Amino acid sequence: MDAGPGAAPHPARGRPGAPSSATRAPGAPWARFSAWLECVCVVTFDLELGQALELVYPSDSRLTDKEVGPALWERTSPGEQALTRFPVFQKSSICYLSFPDSHSGCLGDTQFSFRIRQCGGQRHLWHPDDRHCDSGVPVSLQREPAHYFGYVYFRQVKDSSVKRGYFQKSLVLVSRLPFVRLFQALLSLIAPEYFDKLVPCLEAVCSEIDQWPDPMPGQTLNLPVMGVVLQVHIPSRADKPESSPPKQCGHENLLPAPVVLSSVHELDLFRCFQPVLAHVQMLWELMLLGEPLVVLAPSPAVSSEMVLALTSCLQPLKFCCDYRPYFTVHDSEFKEFTTRTQAPPNVVLGVTNPFFIKTLQHWPHILRIGEPRMSGDLPKQVKLKKPSRLKTLDTKPGLYTAYTAHLHRDKALLRRLLKGLQRERPSDLLSALLRRHLLELTQSFIIPLEHYMASLMPLQKSITPWKVLSRTPPQIRPFRQDDFLRSLEHSGPQLTCMLKGDWLGLYRRFFKSPHFDGWYRQRHKEMAQKLEALHLEAICEANIEIWMKDKSEVEVVDLVLKLRERLVRAQGHQLPVKEATLKRARLYIETVVRSLPTDLQVVLCSP
């Protein structure tokens, strides 16, 4: 839906004769905006239509009524020749996910988030800079080419001027970036102002975001919006875990003083996990194994924060399963997730409608949490319960599962957290303690896998120019689960973790999970790129003229083609190669081509 009459449409993206935003050229309309957000939506409640999409901004970011392909190109009007590329997802899904359902009873202002699948499946990243940004951030924070995140600020207040008696409206930021803390802070600034001043305010905010620098990993950025400067640090793979918040970077005289966000993505884990502190370790195991889990919460805010907290507790491991922080019965994937004709999918669902207890009774794990409440100085803990005790409507809070944890509970951690709560320690300190525990637990589990995987690389001495140039260059050896399990006796998690339990059983189940497949594919890809870079370096260190003496023209041409292919990959930042190596590779190609007959030189030198 286009902007209302009061909006002054920004020039459309992709206009013929102008730089496309896909190239992110300097001055391209909305190029910098697109690095952070796909679009901004406003959803309101209509007495006749129910939830309705009132506004989408920028005005050329149109949504679809039906599911379509991964990229939709449409004429902006019958008389125009301009084509516009825009986010592809259903209007109805955005509308339903942007409002709490009738069971939540949210009054006042509420913030929550959702995650929605792109219609038509996965797309390729549009911007060249996106690939560079993703290669530098931790894998758990990379953009998802097949999903969008929706960050919602919902307001419901009494209003006698409205027929229904209530003002109900949501402001939604749609992005591919999982920066929940940043976008929540941004919504806290712009949503209250928008509800008062409407479209002109939204236009000004979008224009300011269009001036922001790209979210480059490792950089601390100052992001001005509505007279406030948000200072954020974009995480990098080079960052040390649990590092301190970024210091103000050379802007001591900046007025107004920046509002420093300690993280763009980390939630208050302790607050999120308060009702389940006694079972955090079991929930960590369920996440590690990719088990299907339903989180039934009293509101979208509680459900979305719990789901995001659960999926983040595996860091630095990438969460490779599907997850929906807030999910409704109106979602287009409702039938897919609730069918009983096949095993439940590897999904973590956050819901608020008790109807899901009946619909998803066949799911192996259901976490029912009540209203945030304290009992004395200690949080009221949910209890472990058998799935057979599930009731359709009056189900009490609890973790309904037949799963038995492989590892013993860390009682010392629980005592430290509860003692900190009794002594009124700040929540961020308790969150840091909990996050460090989960980080160390995940690292203790992953380090043996990393060590074994590293042992599968060919030895450095075997990567010689002559072997690399042969028909059977050194390759990565296959991962053998039995060999790995035998190695745990001397190099297992017991070296870095004090927890006792059935680590072998946990690894065996992990091998069957989507997270092992995702971790292995990523590590194998990185190792293959490293090996290819070593191959290129070995070739560049060889005396190529001696090698060519007894080689046929076919073999020499084959070398040129292989070198060029690797050079292209290296220049595209897909191989970790030094610039000096690239220069030598170009020189080698020139030397080899000059040694060939003139007719072959013409063929190889042609564009």
Textual characterization of the structure:
The chain has helices at 31-36, 91-97, 128-136, 180-197, 199-209, 269-273, 280-288, 300-312, 334-338, 355-359, 411-422, 427-454, 465-468, 481-491, 503-510, 514-540, 544-548, 553-571, 579-594, 598-605; strands spanning 39-46, 50-57, 73-75, 83-85, 108-117, 147-158, 166-175, 220-225, 228-233, 259-260, 293-296, 322-324, 347-351, 365-368, 374-375, 378-379, 383-385, 398-401. With 607 residues, the protein is an alpha/beta fold. It has a six-stranded mixed β-sheet, covered by helices on one side. A five-stranded antiparallel β-sheet has the order 2-1-7-6-5, with helices on both faces. It starts with 30 loop residues before the first helix and ends with a helix.
Structure described in brief:
With 607 residues, the chain is of the alpha/beta class. The protein is built from 20 helices and 18 strands. Helix 11 (411-422) runs antiparallel to helix 12 and helix 16 (514-540) packs across helix 19.
Give short descriptive properties of this protein.
single chain, 607 residues, alpha/beta, 6-stranded mixed beta sheet, 5-stranded antiparallel beta sheet, disordered N terminus, guanine-nucleotide releasing factor, Protein DENND6B isoform X2, cDENN_dom, DENND6
